[in-house]
Amino acid sequence: MKGFQYLNIADELEKLINTEVYPVGRKLPSLRLISLRFQVSIGTVLKAFVLLIDKGLILGKERSGYVVLRKSVLNVDLPQRSKTISGATEVRLSPVLPQISREEQEHQSFVSFFNAVLDVGLLPLNAIRRSLQHASRDLSGAHLLYEKANGNPLLRQEIAGRSFRWKGALSAEDVVITNGALEAVGLCLRAVAEKGDTIVLESPFYYGILQTIEALGLKIVELPGDTLSGIDLDQLEQVCEEHRVAACVLISNFNNPNGAMLSDQKKQDIAAFARRKKIPVIDDDIYGDLHFDTERPANIKSYDADGWVMLCSSFSKSVAPGYRIGWCAPGRFTEKVIRLKALTNVATASVVQLSLLQLLNTGAYDRHLRKLRPELHKLMLLTLQAIEQYFPVGTRMSRPKGGLVLWIELPQGVDAVLLHQKAIAGHIQIAPGTLFSNSGAYTNYIRMSCSNLWSKRIEQAIQQLGNMIKDQMMKNKN
Amino acid sequence: MKGFQYLNIADELEKLINTEVYPVGRKLPSLRLISLRFQVSIGTVLKAFVLLIDKGLILGKERSGYVVLRKSVLNVDLPQRSKTISGATEVRLSPVLPQISREEQEHQSFVSFFNAVLDVGLLPLNAIRRSLQHASRDLSGAHLLYEKANGNPLLRQEIAGRSFRWKGALSAEDVVITNGALEAVGLCLRAVAEKGDTIVLESPFYYGILQTIEALGLKIVELPGDTLSGIDLDQLEQVCEEHRVAACVLISNFNNPNGAMLSDQKKQDIAAFARRKKIPVIDDDIYGDLHFDTERPANIKSYDADGWVMLCSSFSKSVAPGYRIGWCAPGRFTEKVIRLKALTNVATASVVQLSLLQLLNTGAYDRHLRKLRPELHKLMLLTLQAIEQYFPVGTRMSRPKGGLVLWIELPQGVDAVLLHQKAIAGHIQIAPGTLFSNSGAYTNYIRMSCSNLWSKRIEQAIQQLGNMIKDQMMKNKN
């Protein structure tokens, strides 16, 4: 049994966490103290800690100790698989969105769970300042002329070089720099689809891309998604038999909003499908770098054999939205995308590209990510736990393995738009589920971002939301 | 006669310039020396100098003296008024353009008269560096979140405040910041026209916008233009009777390529026309700040009474192309343009906006412009003179009062695309006229940028071009 002693230690520690002897946010005693307390070696305690880290219960910070992230008891189910929505429809987005966006801009003092965006406190402000200073020093007149339409060659090289992390093999020539991922997706769509064409995507899906699709006059078919495994390949095949499909748009890792991550097998199958059917697949892997597990997950492009997969991504979610640097690797459509990019805005601003290049090639980006990822994981677990505590029984939640958002199914009958209105009155913002579909579905769903630095105020806001939901349920009963 | 003595002095000096006693580029003797030589007061010499400056023959530099710009004899006619081109056509751009653009990118060591872009030596590099350093110092986390879709409020205020210079009265809310003027024009077009709609524009017209129109699937009608006065209003009216026109796109000041500037009366009439016919007019006033006369000219928006004029502009031609900061004031279509901007790339990078704001509100931009404008004027006059000297008799040239380019009509029978190919072989780049129309016209026209710092190499390249043209004419004869 000696070899498994660390399991007993881990169990003991887990109990102490669940009974709140060591509540969430508290530091655990040092390795040394625990080894004395349990009369085992420091190595054994360390093994127990690693187990608890793997279970997501504690967070190890070198030198500064181990912090409790969450209790292991979480009695909340996953959201249900969304239903099939058949027929290609023109996108007519929920009329609530423009209003919400305006409120979002106007009330920046609200507690906002609306935007999938890093808290200001999580941005690498000093590294960015340094990189800008370096960029301004390195700036030559040549940098201030028109940048190449596909972007700074050194920056493209850096991005391409990083593709080995997701099992890709891009070269600098495969990459096109854009003003953010939304522009990348828009350019890819314009390269392969014309007004009136049909696009397939997972349901629920990010409203920003839905709006872009609307602006381009494209139709969509929504494929039912699942918070764990994403779309179903058989259904994808079937839809593509029933409709003349110009492209699929997917988010292979940590889908926004439902958090789904496609398995490697499914990614591989979709790449093969794209090739076989000659249907371009646009993979918006914008959250891939924000994985909570140790390894950077693959994406669909990782398995792209002959250029039918168009990968899009950006640094908006991992560095700073204000940078507006995204990119795509549009495979066989690269030349067309570059041409459209040139005709849209000639090129992306060279100064920002230089500054991002600095962040990447000095290692500042990777150092930032190493700190950011466990921090985001912790924030998500804290949010999960608070929702479990304060939302009514019957609430279901996604368990994403990365990214910034939770997808929450409220008990049937709860009206998320009404909840949103109540929340606004209470100076809280959430994203009602109807935004994430063209079908009117998800009336009892909300998306909440988990990227606010944790505070009493955040926890209270979640409690308030819970009370609002319970109020609504009471009223519905009467 | 005493009061008009300065006219005689001016005549005397003009003769000395034309007979090359004081050749182009040479400093004139000091005020003091000339007053001694002609036995008149320094004030009288100064009045003569002002006259010569007004005639564009000399350039006055405070403290550093007066330099000869050009001789007053310029025996070159203006290009002929372009012919009416009837019928709305889908844009199918000259197949030569993609090839030319690639060559342009690949051979940056060539002498290039191709791009309408400032010479690296004319960019305010140090001011830009300083502004970036300030921006990086002032940078807060909030700046790094998503910028408002319509742009930084302070920057919009600065731009709006400058509208009084062109007799406009914009407020910050009228302005939308974009990634350059081409994006601004594209967004304005998308706001008012759908695929298949017809756009009216002046012929010849900037190929970049022609390509954008092509990418949007729009048709065009080309109105004949004139290098002095631009389009004819009666013809505009007539075309709009014959076609259902979704919008007009014009460049009211220093049209690219033919240099035309609309008169204030015509600007006013076009604004009234837009209002009367309810046809949006997009005015791409991107060169307006590069006027050679003392006053900043008005544009069509100056006379816009109720929002049918959509003004576009940028700092690419006056500060640096790599900044990619443009803007538009889309009048009654502002909300739609902001929405399209948000769906295209969310917002323009905040850091670059901050840096440009610095340039504007510290006065660095205006100081730069005050130096830049006479410098560009001088370069244009030098180019005019060299072309007169080296190109064959029968060459005709525009005389723009601002901007960066000359529009040159070569003797009939000269093939500008062939000339372009010869020039490339001689490591020189020009823009053949066929790029500037969808009609196949302008086969014997070229556009040449005048924004290269003057050097022996530049002059020799113009001489080489002249010889190539003469060679072609000889071969044509045989």
What can you tell me about this protein's structure?
By secondary structure, chain A is of the alpha/beta class. Chain A has three domains: 2-68, Arc Repressor Mutant, subunit A; 89-121 and 370-477, Aspartate Aminotransferase, domain 1, CATH 3.90.1150; 124-365, Aspartate Aminotransferase, domain 2 (3-Layer(aba) Sandwich). Chain A is built from 16 helices and 16 strands. Chain A has helices at residues 5-18, 31-38, 42-54, 96-106, 125-138, 141-144, 153-161, 180-192, 207-215, 233-242, 264-277, 334-345, 350-361, 364-390, 416-425, 456-477; strands at 58-61, 65-68, 89-90, 111-112, 176-178, 198-203, 219-224, 245-250, 281-284, 309-314, 326-329, 396-397, 405-409, 428-429, 431-432, 445-449. In chain A, the strands form four sheets. Chain A has an eight-stranded mixed beta sheet, with helices on both faces. A four-stranded antiparallel beta sheet of chain A has the order 12-13-16-15, covered by helices on one side. In chain A, helix 11 links the parallel strand 8 (245-250) and strand 9 (281-284). In chain A, helix 1 (5-18) crosses helix 3, helix 2 crosses helix 3 and helix 5 (125-138) packs across helix 13. At the A-B interface, helix 4, helix 5, helix 6, helix 8 and helix 9 of A face helix 4, helix 5, helix 6, helix 8 and helix 9 of B. Chains A, B: This is HTH-type transcriptional regulator NorG. Chains A, B: Keywords: Aminotransferase, DNA-binding, Pyridoxal phosphate, Transcription, Transcription regulation, Transferase. Chains A, B: In the C-terminal section; belongs to the class-I pyridoxal-phosphate-dependent aminotransferase family. Chains A, B: It comes from Pedobacter steynii.
